[in-house]
């Protein structure tokens, strides 16, 4: 079956009404680079940087991070490579960073909240990203955004770091900046947030948990924890509409992005990019290519 799918390796799928859909890879380390390329990944839609911090038992240096990010940018050029800044906290404790014990870690000090409070972690990562951006189509993405100020503060830091790199004569470029849409607050203010960034990527794993108020790790809540639930679909619809109004691109990078019954729903809602584990990419391309034209019912 996989051999039949191989025909899709170089396919750049589109809908019958002519929209291109970018099918990209979710990655967590360079060890997945080859499998992503062999699967025909059209770039990287989510590079989770947590593993870089976990595998060393300490915070990786700016240069260590730069090597990884630059290698990815070069490997997939001209496709975009979206690197997510550190998403620690909640379910993701990290060695070398002291996370406080919290009553509600999923509602706690995590993602961009932590990064903005820890410049000694955030700034080396951003500097590494600015330097790597000189090597390809590198984009930076912020996790767990709930408030406009989180974006504005990050942009101010990026501006200062870029000026410092310029004065030091260090090659760099300003990457595109995007945010993950994972909180109900981001959904409900998507029009405002869209004015500040170049792209959205919907993190359906967390968005589902926060919209449904159902812990993504609790098996008892599995019947409620459904990305296909009308409440979650409505949230995704609002985000896609806001992205279209602002003329920015919108992707999905949660597990649901590779689900055969969710893919047509996302595509019909206007999603431009689906990012998933490399082993799901060929099947996703096939599913998109076989979708009936809009307005025509599928075979079910
Ligand atoms: C998500 O929340 O959907 C997502 C892609 O991020 P993570 O699974 O790393 O929290
Ligand atoms: Mg998430």
From TrEMBL:
Highest taxon listed in the record's lineage: Bacteria
Compartments (UniProt record): Cytoplasm
Family: Belongs to the PEP-utilizing enzyme family.
Protein name stated in the entry: phosphoenolpyruvate--protein phosphotransferase
Region of the whole protein represented: 377 to 676 of 676
């Amino acid at each position: 079956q996989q051999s039949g799918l191989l025909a899709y390796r170089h396919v750049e799928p589109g809908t019958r009404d002519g929209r291109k859909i970018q099918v990209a890879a979710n990655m967590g380390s360079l060890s997945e680079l080859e499998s992503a390329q062999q699967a025909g990944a059209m770039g990287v839609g989510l590079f989770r940087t947590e593993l870089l911090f976990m595998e060393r038992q300490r915070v990786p240096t700016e240069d260590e991070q730069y090597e990884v990010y630059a290698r990815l940018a070069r490997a997939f050029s001209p496709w975009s490579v979206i690197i997510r800044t550190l998403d620690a906290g909640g379910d993701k404790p990290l060695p070398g960073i002291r996370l406080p014990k919290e009553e509600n870690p999923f509602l706690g000090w995590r993602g961009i909240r932590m990064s903005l409070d820890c410049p000694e972690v955030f700034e080396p990562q951003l500097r590494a990203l600015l330097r790597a951006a000189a090597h390809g189509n590198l984009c930076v993405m912020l996790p767990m955004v709930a408030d406009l100020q989180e974006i504005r503060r990050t942009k101010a830091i990026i501006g200062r770091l870029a000026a410092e790199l310029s004065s030091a004569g260090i090659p760099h470029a300003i990457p595109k900046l995007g945010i993950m849409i994972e909180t109900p607050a981001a959904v409900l203010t998507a029009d405002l947030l869209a004015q500040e960034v170049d792209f959205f990527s919907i993190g359906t794993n967390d968005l589902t948990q926060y919209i449904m108020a159902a812990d993504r790790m609790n098996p008892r809540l599995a019947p409620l924890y459904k990305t296909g639930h009308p409440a979650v679909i409505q949230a995704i619809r609002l985000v896609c509409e806001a992205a279209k109004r602002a003329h920015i691109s919108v992707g999905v990078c949660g597990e649901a992005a590779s689900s055969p019954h969710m893919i047509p729903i996302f595509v019909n809602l206007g999603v431009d990019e689906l990012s998933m584990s490399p082993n799901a990419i060929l099947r996703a391309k096939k599913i998109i290519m076989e979708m009936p034209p809009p307005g025509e019912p599928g075979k079910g």
